[in-house]
Amino acid sequence: MRSAFGREDFLGDREREVAFVGRSNVGKSTLLNCLIGRRKLARTSRTPGRTRAVNYFLIDGNSYFVDLPGYGFAKAGKRERAQWARTVNLYFEQAVPRARVVLLVDGKVGATPLDVQAFDFLASLGARVVVVATKIDKLKKSQRARSLREIRAALKLPQDEEIDAVSAKTGEGLDALWRRISPRRLADSNG
Ligand code: GDP
In ligand 1, which atom is closest to the CA atom of 168? Predict the structure, then answer.
């Protein structure tokens, strides 16, 4: 619906929103396309990390999915990292109070040190972070619980904090994730 590059571009009329963030190549664009149900809606950039804008997608008339830039792409220098932090910071300055963020972690790769940093940074900005493991189809059923346990441990999540596991490829877990972050749920929790 709209791309924001700087402070003046952010949408000011949002009531409900959920933002998506994750390491470059984690499967964010593919997942957003699945959730929104329209292929090629989230722009997939050929050069990982190229997309610096914050993209808003209108869901059900009055709620938004917000596509935050990916982080941790190859060859990212200090400048790119600062740029990512600046963009995310700007977004949170104007987001609804305690906005909900879906942090995507690759189910096969696990939580990298950059994922841990991103999680801590988001939490420090006051976001409510929902952790979601992506590409779960790459893991055998027998490996999944362990992968989720390791992600939980790396991010120091409480035992009772749920981690959704999804696959955009097979569709597994998408209904459960949708229920967790649906506009109705947001309406209940964001006021
Ligand atoms: P982004 O950089 O986070 O937006 O990642 P993309 O959505 O562009 O996906 C990166 C790569 O992972 C692409 O080659 C996708 O086809 C692949 N991918 C995305 N989601 C899945 C998934 O659920 N399962 C598998 N096996 N591959 C996926």
Answer: 23
Task: State the closest ligand 1 atom to the C-alpha of 48, by its place in the atom list counted from 1.
Answer: 2
Q: Which residues of 10-49 are buried (b: 16+ CB within 10 A; e: fewer)?
A: bbeebebbbbbbbbbbbbbbbbbbbbeeeeebbeeeeebb
Phi-psi region of 39 (alpha: psi -120 to 50; beta: other; left: phi over 0): beta
Average pLDDT over the chain, rounded to whole?
A: 82
**Alpha-carbon gap, residue 41 to 190, rounded angstroms:** 25
pTM assigned to the model: 0.86
Three-class secondary structure of residue 158 per DSSP: coil
- At 136, the pLDDT band (50, 70, 90 cuts) reads very high
Portion of the chain with pLDDT greater than 90, in percent: 40
Tell me the best of 30, 164, 170 to mutate to test the pocket of ligand 1, counting ligand atoms within 8 Å of each CB and taking the most: 30
Token output for 93: 């300055």
User: Pocket of ligand 1, candidates 25, 104, 105, 112: which has the most ligand atoms within 8 Å of its Cβ, to mutate?
Assistant: 25
Radius of gyration (C-alpha) of the chain in whole angstroms: 15
pLDDT band of 191, cuts 50, 70, 90: very low
Pocket of ligand 1 contains residue 24 by CB under 6 Å: yes
